[in-house]
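I would love for you to help me understand the pair of lines that follows before we discuss the fold together.
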Amino acid sequence: MQEFIKGQKARLDTLTPLKQIEIAFCLSPKGIADISLLAIDHQQKLSDVRYAICAKQSKSPEGALKALGSNLHDDERFYIDLDRLPQHMERLAFVMGFERSSIQAIQQGEVYLSVQNQHLMNFAFKGADFAQEKALIMLELYQKNGWRISATGQGFAAGLTALINHFAGDDKRLLEILSRPGSAHRPPPKESSAPLASAGPVRLNKITLDKSGDKQKLSLLKDDKRPIHINLNWDQKRRGFFGGAGADLDLGCMFMMEDGGAGVIQALGGNFGQRAAYPYIFLDKDDRSGMSQDGENLYLHRPDLIDRVMIFTFIYEGASGFRDVNGRLTLKDQQGNEILVNLDNPNYNRTFCAICTIEKVKEEIIITKQEKYFTGHREADHHFGFGFNWTRGSK
């Protein structure tokens, strides 16, 4: 069985070739949350309340989605037949709502996927791992060159009403379906926000992604030839008694394109990519001295062709950990707006950092701060699911 952690994603066919699966929630204390399944259409909305599956409404019209109820072990189980699901339904969101508490009241929780009574994947969590969210998207199945699964774990402090507003606007009928009898879910304050910032015509100017999991949407501009520019910089401190060269940090990425092509761009092994040819990802240089004023730069010249990209850095030499270098990454979009990601929560024992992920969803790019630390490339690849074969390299 594959163990997932918050934010982890994978292709569903790496777990099972079958399209008939079960998703179950097991919570302690039992019965603390309302658990539902929402089928989201190609516009990222729940446009038909008949596809809000829960205890009150246990089956979708064609029977592709079913709430199977609780048993001695599970709080709620769902049956999903992806082959029978209407084609315009592109995302299944498994959500939890808390009436009188928040997710922090959960002592131990688990979401697992099974096929024919065999557990294939689970996502274990504790309430203490979250803030005071009163409604959460815990798990998602979504279409992206085939079905994929995501241990999302994103919440709404304002509760179930805010979650419903995110997917369906002010839909009182949906709120009634998902709420327990007699419960009173109050509307969120006007300034409450959804997990993803809106990608509209307003310029972002500069924004900082503070916490792991923070996201920002960017609109892709049709026929725009400007690349997305990713810059890594760090404190340029010389080391040693005689002032030797500074820390050598390497910038790179693991990528998967929409056509299924995949690879790694990095100075280690000499794969700097290409500007004007596939995969249209280019690393400008290897700053081995740590003294270059502009650090290292990576360019996505055709962001419209990507599926997902994981931006990483690792310490090649010259520093014992990321606490010594004050690393920061700046991403500049096609309009010139900037997103800043600081490496401000480093791990003493890890010298490889997955800084952020960049995903293309329809005509938008979603930037997510990861700042996850690993022992090396292989461990990071295993976490993000690219599936490369790794050998030792040098430069």
